[in-house]
Amino acid sequence: MEKGDAIIAFLEEQLAGFCYIETFEDNKFVVNSGLIVNTELRKEGLGRAIKHRVFELSRTKYPAAKIFGITTSAAVMKINNELGYRPVTFPELTQSDDFWKGCSSCKNYGILMENQRRMCLCTGMVYDTLNDQFSQATIDIISREQ
Question: Is residue 1, in this structure, part of any structural domain at all?
Answer without folding.
Answer: no
